[in-house]
UniProtKB/TrEMBL annotation:
Protein name stated in the entry: Zinc-dependent alcohol dehydrogenase family protein
Alphabetical list of PROSITE patterns matching this protein: ADH_ZINC
SMART domains, per database record: PKS_ER
Cofactors that this protein relies on: Zn(2+)
Annotated organism of origin: Streptomyces goshikiensis
Domain Enoyl reductase (ER) per the UniProt entry, residue ranges: 8-343
Xref: PANTHER family: NADP-DEPENDENT ISOPROPANOL DEHYDROGENASE, ZINC-TYPE ALCOHOL DEHYDROGENASE-LIKE
InterPro entries in alphabetical order: ADH-like_C, ADH-like_N, ADH_Zn_CS, ER, GroES-like_sf, NAD(P)-bd_dom_sf
């Protein structure tokens, strides 16, 4: 098969790779029909995630068709169209039993495109398939569904839920890329008083307004002053960091009110300064987190009902073999206007499946 292979910091290639095979009875082999690129993939290529070794196939978000399953898999079978979650869950360890699948200690967690080969390929092996893939209703397109693999559950769980967004809150989202935009959309489910988006890019701020932001500001134009003005000097109830750079995190801590919450979503490759000389007295709560994807079934129902803006976040579409071109467009989003890029598309053709013994 063909796959996008990490060759070390700054280097990837779309190349031949071995076809995946069943290694465990809980595995499924899935033909990738639609896949996307995550900001975390860019962090990996920059060298910010040293656990990813050269030779690894990247990617952790996809929609596909099951072609083979191990003997223990019960929830899906060959021919089923499924969403591949960015998090795999063994279902047995302490963290999985508590619903914290991202911290799985039984061989799961964030493994796809991280510690095992990922989804930016023609086929992928998914471990713990019963708990790590979700059958898709025909009403949800592949281009919409692929956004539920990571960005929507991440923004909702790590941003909105960790930030404890509530009715009437002033919510600031720093970073209006795909994760930040999904945070704006899902924060709106809780009727905040206002949502303020901060970014450097005018087109992303326009997208933030379309998705529910009540006010937007350029990150270089003193966003702290705008937050002060809109809150009578108090500060924001919730600030969500969706960039992953020290300057953005430190800005968040300056904008939060006493007793407020800072929810960090961004993937950080460098240390950020925690200004405890200012924060120690403010009763501020700071949360970090890796998504658990426990919300994915609920979000899938909402998307099927038309309650989540899937297609609005997809700005560019490519064929699967245009992976390198898609990366070029996504990594230069300031020039291309890219939000989410999707490769592949809906496929409903018949596929060969192994005959099951009677």
């Amino acid at each position: 098969m063909k796959a996008l292979v990490f060759q070390g910091p700054g280097k990837t290639s779309w190349q031949d790779a071995p076809d995946p095979a069943i290694k465990d009875a809980a595995d499924a082999i899935i033909r990738v029909d639609a896949v996307t690129i995550c900001g975390t993939d860019l962090h990996i290529i920059k060298g910010d995630v040293p656990e990813v070794a050269p030779g690894r196939i990247l990617g952790h978000e996809a929609v596909g068709t099951v072609v083979e399953t191990g003997g223990d898999v019960r929830s899906v079978r060959p021919g089923d169209r499924v969403l591949i979650s960015c998090i795999s869950s063994c279902g047995r360890c302490r963290f999985c039993r508590e619903g914290h699948y991202g911290q799985c200690r039984g061989g799961g967690g964030w493994v796809l495109g991280h510690t095992i080969d990922g989804t930016q390929a023609e086929y992928v092996r998914v471990p713990f398939a019963d708990l790590s893939v979700h059958p898709l209703p025909s009403a949800v397109s592949s281009h919409d569904a692929v956004l539920l693999a990571d960005i929507f559950p991440t923004s909702y769980e790590v941003g909105v839920l960790n930030g404890n967004v509530g009715p009437g809150d002033t919510v600031v989202v720093v970073g209006a890329g795909p994760i930040g935009l999904a945070a704006i959309a899902t924060a709106g489910l809780y009727s905040p008083g206002r949502i303020i988006a901060v970014d450097l890019d005018a087109s992303r701020l326009a997208a933030a307004r379309d998705l529910g932001a009540d006010a937007t500001t350029n990150a270089e134009e003193q966003p702290e002053r705008l937050v002060e003005d809109l809150t009578d000097g108090l500060g924001a109830d919730v600030v969500i960091e969706a960039v992953g750079v020290p300057e953005a995190f430190e800005m968040c801590t300056r904008m939060v009110r006493p007793g407020g919450r800072v929810a960090n979503i961004g993937v950080h490759g460098k240390p950020a300064t925690l200004h405890l000389e200012d924060l120690w007295i403010k009763d501020v709560t700071i949360t970090t987190g890796l998504v658990d994807t426990s919300s994915t079934p609920m979000l899938l129902r909402m998307m099927a009902a038309g309650r989540l803006p899937g297609a609005a976040l997809v700005t560019h579409r490519f064929e699967l073999d245009q992976m390198e071109e898609a990366y070029e467009v996504f990594s230069h989003a300031g020039e291309t206007g890219a939000l989410k890029v999707v490769l592949g598309g809906p496929q409903h053709d018949a596929i060969a499946v192994p005959l099951q013994e009677q």
